């Protein structure tokens, strides 16, 4: 048999893209001669991030369905047909041995077509609440790799394998030495570093919080690396100083995690999985704008184990300063949170998922 060929499909946000990249990297490590093709949605983040990671990507003309009646929605049936046709062409040409879907509307047409042709398909669901695309595909795929218990609510029980979420290899083993990271961010080593993460697209409310509390934060003796998101960089770049570094997007998450002493973060599934491995104190501020409030559930799973602090957006005015000042002042609390969050890590998730894919290849 010739070399293996794999299609990975998913996107829209980093939360669906980076798991696909992590899986591809592990497949490549095991099968250096394998060929890879990513399939995403035209105009979305994957079209830039996947080539940066060294893989080829094709974009489909597809968007999610809006809740309101809009022109975009009227186009939806045409987009679906066009995407199915293109996915069909891709499958015929590339002849994949397996197709892996990591969620987001971009993955719908490709997995629908591939499963129809009898090509083995695997889904990876990052959240404790299943996404629409994965729910639509559940009966057509061979395996569904999940990160949370109780996913039988959404998927056939005999297809579910609990693996955890894939985390990119360079984030699984982090160096202790901070010198390269400090140099990269242009910060001195004498004060603790607070890393602010708004998720792959940035978080409006977290940015507003940091901007209004900047003097308070600096008075706690920290320096700041602030990832504010592409949409917000023009507004917040002006806050940059010797002790505050502002980025739209961090291309070196490894260095950000090495540099950080504590974090304030959205609780997207990927961020949570990574922060468990990083093992440092985190204050989660979940996005209230996602389906079924799943970011609150993601963060709560850690709070219940005393492994992180959570503040809801609605509590920030009242509680943020007190909570953060207490964390900075209490080194025992910082240690306990670090130890407890590390216990929740599933660093072998990617290997486990690739084991499942390999089982389908014969
Ligand atoms: C608003 C929204 O829809 N959020 C969803 C999205 O989150 P979002 O896209 O923010 O994704 P996650 O938190 O899951 O993962 C973010 C990924 O982007 C990377 N990263 C982030 C910022 C940065 O500057 N550089 C960088 O590389 C992180 O290292 C991580 O690998 O997908 C997640 C996984 O399905 C869901 O749980 C979230 O609810």
Descriptive labels:
UDP-N-acetylglucosamine--N-acetylmuramyl-(pentapeptide) pyrophosphoryl-undecaprenol N-acetylglucosamine transferase, Rossmann fold, 362 residues, globular, transferase, 6-stranded parallel sheet, alpha/beta, binds uridine-diphosphate-N-acetylglucosamine, 2 domains, 7-stranded parallel sheet, cell shape, 15 helices
Give a brief rundown of this model:
The chain has helices spanning 14-30, 46-52, 71-94, 107-116, 132-137, 169-172, 179-185, 204-219, 233-236, 253-259, 269-278, 294-303, 316-329, 331-343, 349-359; strands at residues 5-9, 35-41, 57-60, 98-101, 121-125, 143-146, 160-162, 193-197, 223-227, 244-247, 262-265, 282-284, 309-310.
Query: Would you state the CATH class of the largest domain?
Result: Alpha Beta
CATH topology of the largest domain: Rossmann fold
- Name the structural class: alpha/beta
Give the termini separation. Answer: 11 Å
**Arithmetic mean of pLDDT:** 95
| Fraction of residues in helix | 40-55%
- CATH architecture type of the largest domain: 3-Layer(aba) Sandwich
Order of helices and strands: EHEHEHEHEHEEHHEHEHEHEHEHEHHH
Membrane topology: Peripheral membrane protein
Domain Glycosyl transferase family 28 C-terminal: 194-351
Function: Cell wall formation. Catalyzes the transfer of a GlcNAc subunit on undecaprenyl-pyrophosphoryl-MurNAc-pentapeptide (lipid intermediate I) to form undecaprenyl-pyrophosphoryl-MurNAc-(pentapeptide)GlcNAc (lipid intermediate II).
Pathway: Cell wall biogenesis; peptidoglycan biosynthesis
């Amino acid at each position: 048999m010739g070399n293996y060929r794999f299609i990975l499909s998913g996107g829209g946000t980093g939360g669906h893209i980076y798991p696909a990249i992590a899986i591809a990297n592990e497949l490549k490590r095991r099968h250096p001669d394998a060929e890879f093709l990513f399939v995403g949605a035209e105009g979305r983040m994957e079209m830039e991030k996947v080539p940066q990671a060294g893989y080829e990507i094709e974009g489909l003309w597809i968007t999610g369905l809006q809740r309101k009646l809009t022109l975009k929605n009227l186009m939806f049936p045409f987009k679906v047909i066009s995407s199915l046709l293109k996915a069909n062409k891709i499958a015929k040409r590339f002849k994949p041995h397996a197709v892996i879907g990591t969620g987001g509307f971009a993955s719908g047409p490709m997995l629908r077509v591939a499963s129809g042709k009898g090509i083995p398909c695997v889904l990876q669901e990052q959240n404790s609440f299943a996404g629409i695309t994965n729910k639509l595909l559940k009966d057509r795929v061979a395996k569904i790799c999940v990160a949370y218990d109780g996913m039988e609510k959404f998927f056939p029980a005999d297809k579910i394998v609990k693996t955890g979420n894939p985390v990119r290899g360079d984030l699984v083993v982090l160096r202790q030495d901070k010198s390269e990271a400090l140099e990269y961010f242009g910060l001195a080593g004498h004060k603790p570093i607070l890393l602010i993460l708004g998720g792959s697209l940035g978080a409006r409310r977290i940015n507003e919080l940091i901007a209004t509390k900047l003097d308070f934060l600096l008075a706690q003796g920290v320096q700041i690396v602030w990832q504010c998101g592409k949409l917000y960089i023009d507004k917040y770049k002006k806050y940059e100083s010797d002790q505050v570094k502002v980025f739209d997007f961090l291309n070196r998450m490894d260095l950000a995690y090495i540099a950080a002493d504590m974090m304030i973060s959205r609780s997207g599934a990927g961020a949570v999985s990574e922060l468990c491995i990083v093992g440092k104190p985190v204050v989660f501020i979940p996005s209230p704008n996602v389906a079924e409030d799943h970011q609150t559930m993601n963060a709560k799973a850690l709070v219940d184990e005393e492994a992180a602090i959570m503040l809801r957006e609605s509590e920030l005015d009242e509680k943020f300063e007190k909570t953060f000042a207490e964390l900075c002042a209490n080194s025992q609390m910082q240690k306990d949170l670090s130890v407890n969050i590390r216990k929740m890590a599933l660093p072998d998730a990617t290997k486990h998922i690739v084991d499942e894919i390999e089982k389908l290849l014969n």
